[in-house]
């Protein structure tokens, strides 16, 4: 049986800790594609596309020798698999958001864990005969991406149970999602120790079953309401007891009162602090969804998120080839020693990149702290008659502006470092890339939570992710152009993406303009309230004077 919302609230810390671990091991693991790509090539996936694999060492087949050569055709095909998986990892959020707003996170989380287990089992099965079953990798990464985003997306509602630290917990969830790119590099370390790739996948599939069990036992059917949407009721039970005195025979009646506190989501009401959007028919529970979609803030956020997503996904898909070019410098006929060095350097730096993904667990709460900055000063203190020091709506926007400016500055910094032809310097770009991945989703989630009604959050986030994923599909033709026409040189593509990433500053620019309008409206509202208060005091004074004059006149008449 699923627990009630009140029971889930008592278990919220257990659910938060396990959600972080589950996100780390089972959510966006495809983002560690560089390490998975090496293992897939070693296992012979799509190696039959390479002519050199027809005969190796005196006509001994690659299957018998265990030695597989790679080629551009193989890398393009496998990168297509990464493109499909990463697309589903983001695009599936739109239908998931709609379904989660309607049915809650529990069924989606159960479905996601089952899909992830199935994907690992399918990869393990395909590894038994990759020459015939290589095509299964496309189905496997599709289920892997879909299952991973189900686990990630459902965990984003859990921070609603944590009040004023909601953005910090949300950032921790996003940090664990972003850090899941470390999982495949960790798996590669186990693989390099001699453990069979198939055994690793089967064990991983079994562990995903534990995620299913944890969700089945601890996650409620209802959605987690936001703190402002929670209502508490007290149920009082009266029970009577009858007691007879054995000595006197008198009968006594006693009553026992039991008080139970219950928690539930209260009915949605129109949000007075929501952005003033185009008018339209109001739906029950707040402003219409169409108004939220057509608002300038959402449209500007689409531009920022789409550009950032393309920049991030392209680097993750093309990282191995970029690192290889930094070693060979595009030599059309590299020596065997240079090829060996390139392979070693790519393996080392891809492991470093994967290990640095754990930084997301440290950097994402930082952006969450920025999003929660001075929010406690916006709370109304019931014991004090004074109003809160800061307006909650304006403070949320101020925090979002700071967060997006920092994130866009880091994205531009990443693009500049990518232009430097130096391999050790790229470690700095790994760190910045990790920070951007964690920051940008926290910024978007915090902005939508600040501006739009809570019942629109899931669908808006899903729509933004889907549109960003569609735009990020451009990474596949960019990769083909880089390894084909440009001979592996990423310079011109990096330069184009660096220029395009400057568009990210348009969103905080509009937010500054919108905040100025809100502050002006706030001042005008305060002036109107002050004028109304003065008018009420004047009317009260006039009534008092008229009453005093009337009483004085009546006194004279009586005399």
UniProtKB/TrEMBL annotation:
Transmembrane segments annotated in the record for this chain: 12-39, 77-98, 110-128, 134-156, 168-187, 199-217, 297-319, 346-367, 400-420, 426-451, 463-485, 491-513
Endpoints of the signal sequence: none
Q: Which InterPro entries match?
A: MFS, MFS_trans_sf
> What cellular component GO annotations does this protein have?
plasma membrane
Assigned keywords, A-Z = Cell membrane, Glycoprotein, Membrane, Transmembrane, Transmembrane helix
**Membrane topology (UniProt):** Multi-pass membrane protein
Protein location:
Cell membrane
The record's principal subcellular location, in a coarse class, is membrane
Coiled coil (residue ranges): none
Which PANTHER family does the UniProt entry name for this protein?
A: LARGE NEUTRAL AMINO ACIDS TRANSPORTER SMALL SUBUNIT 3, LARGE NEUTRAL AMINO ACIDS TRANSPORTER SMALL SUBUNIT 4-LIKE ISOFORM X1
Q: Which family does it belong to?
A: Belongs to the SLC43A transporter (TC 2.A.1.44) family.
The name on file for this protein is Solute carrier family 43 member 1b
